[in-house]
From TrEMBL:
GO molecular function: L-aspartate oxidase activity
Pathway the protein takes part in: Cofactor biosynthesis; NAD(+) biosynthesis; iminoaspartate from L-aspartate (oxidase route): step 1/1
All copies of domain FAD-dependent oxidoreductase 2 FAD-binding, residue ranges: 13-378
Taxonomic lineage from the root: Bacteria, Pseudomonadati, Pseudomonadota, Alphaproteobacteria, Hyphomicrobiales
UniProt protein name: L-aspartate oxidase
UniProt entry tagged with the keyword NAD: no
Keywords in alphabetical order: FAD, Flavoprotein, Oxidoreductase, Pyridine nucleotide biosynthesis
Cofactor: FAD
EC code(s) of this entry: 1.4.3.16
Broad EC category: oxidoreductase
Amino acid sequence: MTDHPQLYRDRPVVVGAGLAGLMTALSLAPEPVVLLSHAPLGAETSTGWAQGGLAASLADDDTPSLHLDDTLAAGAGLVDAAAARAILEAAPEAVRRLAALGVVFDRNGEGFQLGLEAAHGRRRIVHAHGDATGREIVRALAAAVRATPSIAVLEGVEARRLIVEDGAVAGIVCVGPNGEAMTIPTARVVLATGGIGGLFCDSTNPRGSQGQGLALAARAGALLANLEFVQFHPTALDTAARPMALVSEAVRGEGAVLIDETGERFLRHLPGAELAPRDEVARGIWQHLVAGHRVYLDARHQPGAGFARRFPGIDRLCRDAGFDPALQPLPVRPAQHYHMGGIAVDGQGRSSVAGLWACGEVACTGLHGANRLASNSLAEAAVCAAWVADSVGNAPATSRLLAGAPVAAKVADLRTGDAEQTRPILSRALGLVRDRAALEVAVAQLLPLATSARPAAGPALVGLMLAVSALNRQESRGAHWRADFPSSRSEAVPSLLSLDQTLAIAREVALSLCFAESA
């Protein structure tokens, strides 16, 4: 960060360099834009780890309406149908735009090669290099960004605080690789920071994905939505490695089945069996594990000998762990994988704070509802990035922050998050099955961390908001399953939460527990 921040004054700032961030920056061209990447461009993003593909109705026997039907069914009543329809109608063109930007998707003689994943009624998943879709997307888009003169890429730079003046974004405070702080005066910030997997002990996400964008937005006063809905992927490779290696749903789409140590297909009774919605498959596996069984993904017959050809990346992961997928069943278990909740945004990605947008996993557009349909997330990020860029490009550009304002000096001591204390708390209370007692304990444990000045404060704050949201939703719906409220309410209602509301509820919970213990 050797450039003076005033050089970037009034430019839009995009925080995050996965699919959502890269596409937003590219879609803003030729307007000058600043792209912040906490790691070298293209590294340490959830996008880069994505084995699955993009869901889009590209086949002759498919339509956006059929895609919407599957999305609504998986979302358990909480999908915003209008928002979902708009996104899914735009998904095929977004795939074509990615291809035009250099993403090399798998093709056959008829066009894109389309795969099948759970709860999809048609083959509509576009992949790259079999199971390396995310890596290929990041490769191509990072190259396109570097070739675009209007995009200033700041690598090794973390966003630490949004500056809000009179209810609107006025700047962003960043810290560089050497610990130096700087403030960029800007009236337009796009958060594309990814998910929350780093807040859980068992996750398929990069360890550094700790909900940083959620903390930035909450501290700026933005509303967050549906935070309680955390998706657990059914088939993470059950080894000691953390983060856990993912075995893509596409493997089941090609015929692999789930068995236990006796060889029984114990989920055969589910409608769709292994290709039922993710929340149902994950809970079914979890319940079987709790009952004392082992669970395996058996790909010996399908895809069988063709496994390495169809899924070369997963084959390498398995072999590195000592398994041959063509010859051995793979031990699997559920692991945190995706966050359906996020910053509440409208159809243009605008948050409740003027000048703040969100895109990708950090945003809650209404597409995923209570349970994300497989491979809808990459499609959502690609589609919404263009809409966000259009909105940003038409928004007021002048920051209210005066040149030379001593903001950086006030926040230069802010340090990056440390989730070590948060992980075990969230993993115990916000797993596949939840209940009031565990959630209240989590709230009481997280509150002092979240309100401290320690490095643990950021991750703990995000964890606290998740726990309060889960405590507030007294029903079971989609990925949110309450053992003490096992039924769903007749009406599906989205949840909205601010930081002030979170802290007020958390203090009441902590106080009630304190009284209960002293009684």
